[in-house]
Amino acid sequence: MKLNSIPIRLENCSKTYNQKTQVLQPTSLAISAGETLVLLGPSGCGKTTTLRLIAGLERPDPGGRIFFGEEDVTQQAIEERRVGMVFQNYALFPNFTVRENIGYGLKIKKIPPRLRKVRVDELLELVHLTEHADKNIAQLSGGQKQRVALARALAPEPRVLLLDEPLTALDAKLRETLRTDMDLLLKNLGVTTVYVTHDQAEAMVLGDRVIVMSAGRIEQAGSPRDIYFQPKNRHVAHFLGSLNCLNGFFKDDAFHTHGGHIACPAQAAGLPEVFFRSEDAMLVAPGQSTLRGIIANIQFLGERTRVYLQGVSDSVVCVETSNRTNYQTGQEAGLLIPQEHLLIIHKD
Ligand SMILES: Nc1ncnc2c1ncn2[C@@H]1O[C@H](COP(=O)(O)OP(=O)(O)OP(=O)(O)O)[C@@H](O)[C@H]1O
C-alpha cells in the first residue's frame, strides 16, 4: 500500500490558551512530503499542541498559517484536512468489531460495501490482524488495539498521518516490537507523518528528522544522529542518552591528553561545560589514568553494566560497559574518555 504524500508548512504558529498562557511560542516548521518527523520533548513542552494545530483540532494565534502543499488549511476543520490520527488511548469504538472499526471512516464516506471490504481486508493484512477481523475490541490486547487504530486512521487514505504517543500505553517489550513494525510500515506507506513522543529511543528509530522541544519552543531540529552527537545546548544533550558532566575539568582549551584520551584534565571555571556520554568512556586500571574514582554503585543489565564512579567529577558519573569484568563497589577505577567523544557545550 502506498499513499500520496504532501509537504506541510507551519508559518509563525503560536498558541495561547485562555488569552494568557502561550504554550507554543511562534514556530515555523517545514515537513517534507513523505517524511516522518518526530516531535520529542518532556511532558508539557507543546508537542501535542503542535500536532493538534496540524490536525485542525486547534487554531493558531492570529498571524499563524498552516499549509498542506500549497493549500492554506489554517481555517479548515479537521474533516476537511484529510488527516489520519492515532492516539495513546486508541479511541476505538468498543462495541464494534475490528473490521467495523477499520471500515468506519469508509462507511462515513459512503464507499460501497464491496469496495469497503476489499480495502479493509488489505488493511487487516497490513497490520497483521486478518485472523482477528471479527473479534470485538474488548477481546484484543493493547498492541492489537493500537494496530486497529492505525489501520482505521489509514483507511480513508489520509494526506497526513498524525500519531500522538501511540505506543506509550504498552509494556516495554511490546513497544519495542511495535516500534519496529511501525518503522517498516511508515517507510512503505510513504505518507507524511508527524509522530509525538517523549521516548528518545522511539524518536531515534522512527524519525527521519527529530525536533526536540522544551517549554513551548523548538530547541533543535536534525537527523537522529545530529541531535545525538551534536546537541546544540544542554536541554537537548540531557534529553538524549545518559550524560555526565565533567565539572571544572576544562581550562584554556588545553586538554592534557594521553594517547588521544583525556587522562589528566585541569581545573577551571567560567568556561564551556564538558560532557561525555556513559557509553563513550572506558574503565581502566587506576594506574592507567589520572581520572580516578571509587565505584559507588553497579547495575548489571545483562548485555551491559552501568558503573557509577564517585570522585571523578563534582557529581557521580556513570559509565556503561559491555565488558564482562565483575566490578565491585568500593573498588578504585580509572576512566578514559576519547577526546573526540567529549561534548563541549556553551552555556546558554
Ligand atoms: N486546552 C487547553 N487549555 C489550557 N492549557 C492547555 C490546553 N491544552 C494544553 N494546555 C497546556 O499547554 C501546555 C502544553 O501542552 P501539550 O499537551 O502540548 O504538551 P505535550 O508536550 O504534548 O505534553 P504531554 O506529553 O504531557 O502531552 C501544557 O502546559 C498544558 O497544560
UniProtKB/TrEMBL annotation:
Which superkingdom is the protein from?
Bacteria
Entry keywords, A to Z: ATP-binding, Cell membrane, Membrane, Nucleotide-binding, Translocase, Transport
Q: Which InterPro entries match?
A: AAA+_ATPase (IPR003593), ABC_transporter-like_ATP-bd (IPR003439), ABC_transporter-like_CS (IPR017871), ABC_transpr_MalK/UgpC-like (IPR047641), Mo/tungstate-bd_C_term_dom (IPR008995), P-loop_NTPase (IPR027417), Transp-assoc_OB_typ2 (IPR013611)
Which residue intervals define the domain ABC transporter in the entry?
Answer: 8-240
Q: Name one GO molecular function term.
A: ABC-type transporter activity
**SMART domains named in the record:** AAA
Which Gene3D superfamilies has this protein been placed in? Answer: P-loop containing nucleotide triphosphate hydrolases
Q: Which GO terms describe its cellular component?
A: ATP-binding cassette (ABC) transporter complex, substrate-binding subunit-containing
PANTHER family in UniProt: MALTODEXTRIN IMPORT ATP-BINDING PROTEIN MSMX, TREHALOSE IMPORT ATP-BINDING PROTEIN SUGC
The protein, known as: Putative spermidine/putrescine transport system ATP-binding protein
